[in-house]
Amino acid sequence: MASRSRKGGDSDPQITHVQIDGLAMMKIIKHCHQDLASQADEAQGVLLGLIMENKLEVTNCFPFPRSIDGVDDERYQLDMMRLLRLVNVDYLSVGWYQSASSGNYISRQLLESQFQYQDSIEESFVIIYDPMKTAAGCLAIKAYRLTKPAMEMVKERGYFNFDMLRTLKIGHENMFQELKVVVRNSHLVNALLSELSEVFPETRNLEMMDLGTAPVLQRHLRSIMDCTDEMSQFHQFQKQTVKQQLEKQRYTQRRNVENAARKARGEPPLPDEDFNFKPIQPPRDLEAGVIVGGQMAIYCQQINDFCSQALAKLFLVDSLHQNPAPRPLGQ
Q: What residues pair up with 63 in beta bridges, in sequence order?
């Protein structure tokens, strides 16, 4: 990755949204769908563009070489940017993109990769594109940046230990900052699309009216079960911590009751003793509590959105069955 710092102090850049040209968006979609069809690893690439006040403009992009090609990624990016500069194309890197499968993208690799970009280019971001959700009839694209506490957490280059998370007050809820994504076409492209719509008539897309909900729910629930298995060690730590807190409360209550009884009998209270419970050592790496927990939250949000849409479709179909359209005479 090309190192190009634009840092202007400790203040965070006030980037409010990301603007992507339609051509760059189509390149991202084509690359992600091609890798999905070939069952390769996640599609990744570089986003090129400009920074305009409070927005990031993405005007071009190109994919990373696959790992099996044996090409140095950093050298490849520098060569591509140099060639794009020669042909007077925007060559400044503003971030990168990655494909996702049904919302599965929160990982340590994503955190470390975005940290490297954001540490070099403060305004950089990552675009997550989900080809499977898009194939169902809805464009699934999101843009994220790491928050300042998350940058400090990844900068430690160590484990997600308990003390660090408590000091930074960070969890999966405040790791990422989501940016609004706006797709924009130039006037010439809009004119071309208008002419093409007359040459090629629009076809009806009924994929969004699909009432089959079982496969999608099964896939998401299976993913949540896998995440739950990964969080077993963290859950065990939480159980032991809660159990120890209850034991401390019961011990304090028994001591207060005994002191009250001794006071009623005119006896002196028990001496103050510091009853030390053996501290429970948290897991060395709390990655499951942060990264996997964030991934589970995304799965749950997707199930919530999907069920809301599915219920709306079912009510619509039910109303059509109850009030069928009148048929002409003779049919």
A: 45
Query: H/E element holding 119?
Result: helix 108-120
Residue 129 confidence (pLDDT): 92
274's torsion region: left (phi>0), alpha (psi -120 to 50) or beta? beta
The model carries a pTM of 0.71
Q: How far apart are CA 256 and CA 241, in angstroms?
A: 23
pLDDT averaged over 10-residue windows placed end to end, the chain, 331 residues: 46 76 90 78 87 87 76 83 87 89 81 88 90 78 88 70 71 84 87 82 63 72 78 75 84 85 83 68 65 83 80 76 64 53
11-50 burial by CB neighbour count: b if 16+ within 10 A, else e?
A: eebebeebbbbeebbebbbebbbebbeeeeebbbbbbbbe
At 170-203, the pLDDT tens digits run 777 788 888 999 988 888 888 888 888 788 776 6
Going by their DSSP bridges, the two strands 55-63 and 44-52 should be labelled as antiparallel
Whole-number Cα distances in Å, 52 to 15, 58, 123, 171, 327: 9, 11, 11, 31, 58
If you average pLDDT over every residue of the chain, what do you get?
79
User: Distance between CA atoms of 126 and 138, rounded to whole angstroms?
Assistant: 20
Q: How buried is residue 113: exposed, middle or buried, by Cβ count under 10 Å (0-12/13-18/19+)?
A: middle
Q: Is the distance from CB of 126 to CB of 47 less than 8 angstroms?
A: no
Give the pairing of strands 55-63 and 17-21: parallel
